[in-house]
User: What shape does this take?
Amino acid sequence: MQNYDSFLAEVLIPEETLKERVRELGEEISRDYAGNNILAICILRGGVMFLTDLIREISVPVAIDFMGVSSYGVGSRVSEGQVRLTLDLTTSIANKHVLIVEDIIDSGNTLNSVVELLLTRNPASLNIVTLLNKYSRREVDVPIKYCGFDIPDKFVFGYGLDMDEYYRNLPFIGVVDLEKYEAEI
Ligand code: IMP
Ligand code: MG
Assistant: This one.
């Protein structure tokens, strides 16, 4: 496993900028949900870093649960439209104020399926917060309530997002030089 600097094209969002924006999102969400509780649903695995940082910036009571979905074929970096549920929630969302926490919305296929599924379970409300948004690649419209950053159509990694499952632990969002990455693995 090589060190990431051999394929890091650029640091797109540095650690401090992420922290600042996550703090702002937390404040905004706290204002909007004043007087209510939130059930934050993290979409595994990419949303984990964002979830744990975000909920510490939220001042209303927050419960968490996790959902696993898989949208990519093996070895692919493009979502295929068909989304598979790999892990379901353990709590009921009926009559709860659900906030879906996602790392990145690309084609929109993953979140669209998740929203359709969760709406059948009668939450009191359902909103989406995504750290990153690749709007130029959208195939299905997804109603995003809170967005950290709009980013260009580049493959990114770090802060929860992986390259073949690794590098989620990096504290910043970097752009991958795919040619260099593929040449070296
Ligand atoms: P969508 O279904 O096309 O919207 O894809 C959403 C999922 O694809 C996200 O939850 C991520 O796991 C993954 N994804 C999309 N773009 C990137 C990227 O640039 N880096 C890492 N993962 C990505
Ligand atoms: Mg991924």
In short: Residues 15-151 form a domain with the Rossmann fold fold (CATH 3.40.50.2020).
